[in-house]
Amino acid sequence: MKFSVTVTLKKDVLDPQGKVVENTLQNIGMESLKSVRQGKYFEIEVSDQDPQKAEKKVDDMCKKLLANLVIEDYKVNKI
Amino acid sequence: MNSSVIVFPGSNCDRDIAVALEKMQFKNQMVWHKETTLPKSDLIVIPGGFSYGDYLRSGAIAGKSLIINEVIKAANKGCLVLGICNGFQILTETGLLKGALLRNKNLKFINKDVNIKVENNETKFSYKYKKNQILKINIAHNEGNYFTNSDHLKKLNNENLIAFKYCDKHGATKEENNPNGSLENIAGIYNSNKNILGMMPHPERMIDKMISNNDGINLFSSLIN
Q1: Can you give the residue range of the structural domain that contains B91?
Q2: Which residues contact B182 (CB under 8 A, 6 or more apart)?
Q3: Facing residues of B135 across strands?
Q4: Residue B209 dihedral angles phi and psi, to the nearest 5°
Q5: pLDDT tier, B216 (very low <50, low <70, confident <90, very high otherwise)
Q6: Cα angle B64-B56-B143, degrees, rounded to a multiple of 5
Q7: Active site residue B204
Q8: Which of the residues A22, A70, A74 would you substitute to probe the B interface, choosing the one with the greatest number of B C-beta atoms within 10 Å?
Q9: DSSP code at position B202
């Protein structure tokens, strides 16, 4: 079973890289841009067949290593 | 006093800190990260560098290494622990120190000598310094922007857990003397018991007037007694 995990900085944490990307997109004329937040993306495959169990395991991986919960939020999606 | 320096793949200040410790008469041992026991230690140092190439986040992989479980156990029993630069990042990743070190606000790697002020000189790490003494210490990092939640920041202030702050040469902690965007110009913090110190500046680089200055030496001379 495969999952995608997206890790991004929390809303109240300054994201200077995202800001630079945002400014650059504006500079090259991208209209109606509101904001950019940069993050990390993982694809994770686990051998569990039970979707709930599998998702719980991936959630545990996020909490223990993939995200630093002091500064980051994460989202898990089945793919 | 016995000291242990933990070495990870990518550590690059491990030998500098060993020189500083031995200069101050510590009996020092280097401990590879795959070890599962620590030698008898009064002080554990997690050195600077780029452990695991800063993969995932600075300090994240080292923070889950085998030897770190032993460091956590020793720290919880009161052993002195010093994390410098990447060592500070690793200590926040283990949870021994709260908060996190974000990418420098200006997105640049900063390598320069900066002024820092001793905020608390009543700990085992700092009592040879005077309160508010200004030191010139080298920083060299890309992720040194200290961040924590507002409750913890209050606690740091109320319990006198801020070790050092970036300042100008007169000791004023203004925004323009904040190299990396750290909250309240914080350069180093203690845990509640004050047996763990994490700091971004490199005191081990300031132990000899021949090559820099010796503003860092009193940290080690505080520890040896």
Answers
A1: 2-224
A2: B144, B145, B146, B147, B166, B200
A3: B116
A4: -65, -25
A5: very high
A6: 100
A7: yes
A8: A70
A9: B
Name the 3-class secondary structure at A49: coil
pLDDT-derived band at B215, boundaries 50, 70, 90: very high
Q: Give the type of residue at A25.
A: L
CATH class of A2-78: alpha beta
- Which residue in the set A9, A17, A68 is minimally distant from B107, CB to CB? A17
User: What is the tens place of the pLDDT at every residue in A22-35?
Assistant: 999 999 999 899 99
Alpha helices in B42-108 (DSSP H): 66-76, 86-94
CATH number at residue B178: 3.40.50.880
Inter-chain CB proximity B100 and A70 less than 8 Å:
yes
Instruction: State the Cα–Cα distance between residues A70 and A61, nearest whole angstrom.
Output: 16
What are the C-alpha distances in Å from A35 to residues A18, A40, B54, B103?
Answer: 8, 17, 27, 19
**Element (H or E) spanning B153, and its range?**
helix B150-158
From the list B88, B90, B82, B108, the residue with the least C-alpha distance to B187 is B88
Number of domains in chain B: 1
